[in-house]
Amino acid sequence: MAGNTLNVNAILMCPHGGQVQIISTNTRVKVGGAFAALSSDQFLISGCPFIIGLVPSPCMTVQWILTDLRAKVNSTFTLSMSSVGLCLSAAQAPQGPVMIVNTQPRVKSQ
């Protein structure tokens, strides 16, 4: 994978406009002034308005299916602009891909 490495200040959204908050366990490595986001971190989604029929089915979390292949922090793969994640509902149903809107511009993974 390649692209700018994600950190906890990266802006991510679900396909329906919900905001993703990154809760990281990384307390060692910073990129662009903030801790690097790891594939094992929690990615919580709030404000997703998605409804199936009359039943609310908002996106709740992100599950990463493609991470950086070379870069690791504490033996856990990092994430970059080219990583792929799926937004999941509370029932763990896939709702669509996470959108990486903005990240730090300094550090790139190869």
Describe the structure.
This protein has 110 residues and is mostly beta strands. The protein has a single domain, classed as Tumour Suppressor Smad4 (Sandwich), CATH 2.60.200. Helix content is 0%, strand content 46%. The protein has no helices and 15 strands. The protein has strands at 3-4, 11-13, 19-23, 30-31, 34-35, 42-46, 51-52, 55-56, 59-66, 72-73, 76-77, 84-89, 94-97, 99-102, 108-109. The strands form 6 sheets. Strands 6-3-2-14 form a 4-stranded antiparallel β-sheet, with no helix packed on it. The radius of gyration is 14 Å and the shape is elongated. The protein starts with a strand and ends with a strand. The model has no long low-confidence stretch (mean pLDDT 91).
Question: Can you lay out the helices and strands and say which pair or pack?
Answer:
Layout: E1 3-4, E2 11-13, E3 19-23, E4 30-31, E5 34-35, E6 42-46, E7 51-52, E8 55-56, E9 59-66, E10 72-73, E11 76-77, E12 84-89, E13 94-97, E14 99-102, E15 108-109
Antiparallel strand pairs: 1-15, 2-3, 2-14, 3-6, 4-5, 7-8, 9-12, 10-11, 12-13
Essential attributes:
single chain; about 110 residues; mainly beta; Tumour Suppressor Smad4; 4-stranded antiparallel sheet; 3-stranded antiparallel sheet; elongated
Give a brief rundown of this model:
By secondary structure, the chain is an all-beta fold.
